[in-house]
Design brief:
heterodimer; A: 293 residues; alpha/beta; Aldehyde Dehydrogenase, Chain A, domain 1; three-stranded antiparallel β-sheet; 10 helices; 12 strands; B: alpha/beta; Aldehyde Dehydrogenase, Chain A, domain 2; 2 domains; seven-stranded mixed β-sheet; 37% helix; globular
């Protein structure tokens, strides 16, 4: 007799834990008429809980050393590499061919490695020591913006998600991500990868559900500092921009329709979610005799 | 707490003699038109408004009020100049024009300083030593960037945006115009600038300088008016970029207005900066820094250090020194070279400040003002501080934009970090301590764009300026000030 398979219960990821949605609701996306599973239909309350978790994690993640963040990101890639077969399988379940699925997983891993390397370098690219005309030491350096709402692409399950999240957290931001509604499987499994990669609980929170239901909450929440929208719907983007006004969220829009392209790998993606801080301090000029020594 | 307060007696009979700056050498018209396409153009609106000297309440000049049609003309002139001349000009040539503007400003610095002080009420010492030299330096700095942009952004190809609509505030009229125009021109954009309605004169003098510099017609256009004029600039369909400095409230209106458009936006908005004194600070220097932090330019400064946090152990000493120093501030005629605190910029702003003084007292704050006399005419507010406050008091949370300091105390480092960051703003902060490691901890923990360690209110063209959170986004100044005017 054939062995009965253990079917996976797809959960969401908040504060480093895997709850089902507090609302108890689900939806059932289908591929070729076949159900992909009972996926959590996350609620506004789930989102708000996730923001609390993200804010709590911001202190520790943003204060981690750049070298440490670099290693943690590298660790994500290691974990993903080790579980690539599972991702390929899920991608095929969601309609991908085997070749396409492999391409997507490999690209995602390589992209994580790419940004892992930037963690302790990007600030050297974007910083400056400013030659002010008074006797002060003055420098400008980037700091993470804070908590970021991310709406990951709808048409890809993994590569778009990774391309959105990784540059955001590379600098020390934390985020709450709403993933592809029709292809949610990889995102949930990616949460398991994050969970085993030394990414602090709450640094990345992953929700599944209806974009229509969650979008305005993600855009209007007063404790969210920035918004990454990685889809192409102009109406949704306008709604986000309008809702983001009340606390002046930084709204960034990416066109990920060609997400594999090499142009999507550069440190300016990290720069989109940092704030430049300029620090001044006086320099004492006593005893400067003009000597060349 | 019936401690005997020892105050220094400043009533010694050694008053300073008046030392007024002469106004004889300045050239002002009785009426100003709009500066569009390199020419002075009468407004379609047919309307003019008076600009007032806030220290005397006398009218200085009449200034044209631009309506939508006027703004449209200005944008068209800017577009034409962009298409026909400015975008085609070699970058090095572009730079030379900007250098010319810088030099002309330096040549006319004295005249500009006097007009700035007459129109806005700020002490001549400040307009002469800070506003005007910095404004000229800003043009000088960005002029040199014009042909070097490819070095600023590794592996990218910067391109200009087109027409920039720029709206400036009344607190540093010419300096803010320089902050806006210089980087816009260096990056190859053309400009429509709307200066604040209470202080338009130095921007109009700048228009004369621009004419004199031979800058091609229409590259810079200056339209005067109030909020409606600014709205026309923001909402004009052919503007590619909005740069705004002003209140957070208006910033949000602008952000809302540009949603769904391709306009790039820089917002430099309000602040409620914490200025933090630790017990190990050099207290006399720190007190100077606090005075400069809040009473500089009558407190009409977005990055003013309006919230003072004093470590409890030195609270009594600091407060005594602070009050003594407040007593020695000279309040009065802005044109007098001895004046430290000039006139409040407008009647409306004075009413706003008075309202906050009332609120501060109603909410239980204890108000202290210096014992100076103020002139009979004009708009004045004595240097003021409040004690006995809590975090939720409105004068602790809201931007007053006047010479009003909210004093609070703290015991531990973590407490003051929490309190200092507890506002929706994040423009600037100050930290006073003699311990380097503590200073760097604090500068790192402050969620604000500009941090002054053992100094305050310092500005430089090479130094990026701008806020976190609801203090806006984008940077002005320095290499980082180029990006908001470029696409890649």
């Amino acid at each position: 007799m054939a062995r009965a398979e253990i079917l996976k219960t797809y959960k969401i990821y908040i504060g480093g834990k895997f709850p089902r949605t507090e609302s108890g609701r689900y939806y059932t996306p289908k591929q070729d008429g076949k159900s992909l599973g009972n996926i959590c239909l996350s609620s506004r309350k789930d989102f708000r809980n996730a923001v609390v978790a993200a804010r709590n994690a911001f202190g520790s993640w943003s204060n981690a050393t750049a070298f440490n963040r670099s290693q943690v990101l590298y660790r994500i890639a290691e974990m993903l590499e080790g579980r690539k077969a599972q991702f390929v399988e899920e991608l095929m379940q969601q309609g991908s061919s085997k070749a396409k699925a492999e391409k997507e997983v490999f690209a995602a891993i390589d992209r994580i490695i790419y940004f892992a390397g930037w963690c302790d370098k990007y600030s050297q690219i974007f910083s400056a020591v400013n030659p002010v005309a008074t006797s002060h030491f003055n420098f400008t350096a980037p700091e993470p913006t804070g908590v970021v709402s991310v709406v990951a692409p709808e048409d890809t399950s993994l590569i778009g998600l990774v391309s959105g999240i990784i540059p955001v957290i590379a600098s020390g931001n934390t985020c709450v991500v709403l993933v592809s509604e029709s292809k949610p499987l990889c995102a949930v499994t990616f949460a398991e990868v994050l969970n085993s990669s030394d990414v602090p609980g709450g640094a990345v929170n992953i929700l599944t559900g209806h974009t229509k239901e969650l979008l305005s909450h993600m855009a209007s929440h007063m404790d969210v500092n920035a918004f990454l929208y990685a889809r192409g719907d102009k109406k949704e983007l306008l709604e986000i921009q309008k809702q983001a006004v009340e606390n002046l969220k930084r709204v960034v829009h990416y066109d990920f329709s060609d997400v594999y392209a090499e142009k999507h790998q550069n440190p300016y993606y990290i720069e989109d979610f940092v704030e430049m801080k300029t620090t001044w301090h006086p320099i004492e000029k006593i005893g400067a005799s003009g000597s060349g020594y | 707490m019936s401690k005997k307060t020892i105050a220094i007696n400043f009533d010694t009979g050694w008053d300073l003699n008046p030392a007024p700056e002469s106004t004889s050498h300045i050239q002002l018209n009785e009426q100003y038109q709009l500066f569009i396409g390199g020419k002075w153009v009468k407004p379609e609106s047919g309307k003019y408004f008076a600009t007032i000297n806030p220290a005397t309440e006398e009218k200085i000049a009449m200034v044209a009020e631009a309506n939508e049609k006027d703004v449209d003309k200005a944008v068209k002139a800017a577009r034409k100049a962009y298409n026909d001349v400015w975008s085609k000009m070699p970058a090095a040539e572009r730079g030379k024009y900007i250098y010319r503007i810088a030099r002309l400003m330096q040549e006319k610095a004295r005249e500009l300083a006097v007009i700035e002080t007459m129109d806005g009420g700020k002490p001549i010492r400040e307009s002469r030593d800070i506003d005007i030299p910095l404004a000229a330096a800003h043009f000088f700095y960005y002029a040199g960037w014009a042909d070097k942009l490819n070095y600023a952004f590794p592996n990218r190809h910067p391109q200009s945006l087109g027409v920039a609509g720029q709206i400036t505030p009344w607190n540093f009229p010419l300096l803010m115009a320089a902050w806006k125009i210089a980087p816009a021109l260096a990056t190859g954009n053309t400009v429509v600038l709307k200066p604040a309605e209470t202080t338009p004169l130095t921007a109009l003098k700048l228009a004369e300088i621009i004419q004199e510099s031979g800058l091609p017609d229409g590259v810079v256009n200056i339209v005067t008016g109030a909020g409606a004029t600014g709205a026309a600039v923001v909402n004009h369909k052919d503007v590619d970029k909005i740069a705004f400095t002003g209140s957070t409230g208006v910033g949000k209106i602008i952000q809302n207005a540009v949603a769904g458009t391709n306009k790039k936006v820089t917002l430099e908005l309000g602040g409620k900066a914490a200025n933090i004194i630790f017990e190990d600070a050099a207290l006399d220097q720190a007190v100077e820094g606090i005075i400069n932090g809040i009473y500089f330019n009558q407190g009409h400064v977005c990055c003013a250090g309006s919230r003072l946090f004093v470590q409890e152990s030195v609270y009594d000493t600091v407060l005594r020194k602070l009050k003594d120093r407040m007593e020695s501030l000279v309040v009065g005629n802005p044109l007098d070279k001895n004046t430290d605190v000039g006139a409040i910029n407008s009647k409306e702003q004075l009413a706003t400040i008075h309202n906050y003084l009332k609120i501060g007292k109603q909410e239980g704050g204890e108000m202290y003002q210096s014992n100076c006399s103020t002139p009979k005419k004009g708009y004045w507010c004595k240097p003021t501080l409040f004690t006995n406050l809590s975090q939720s008091n409105r004068i602790v949370q809201e931007e007053i934009f006047g010479p009003v300091l909210a004093v609070q105390t703290f015991r531990t480092v973590s407490e003051v970090i929490e309190k200092a960051n507890n506002t929706p703003f994040g423009l600037s902060a100050g930290v006073w301590t003699d311990k380097g490691s503590k200073l760097f901890n604090l500068t790192a923990q402050m969620r604000a764009g500009i941090i002054w360690g053992n100094t305050y209110n310092k500005f430089d063209p090479t130094s990026p300026f701008g806020g976190y959170k609801e203090s806006g986004f984008g940077r002005e100044g320095g290499l980082h000030g180029l990006k908001p005017y470029l696409k890649f």
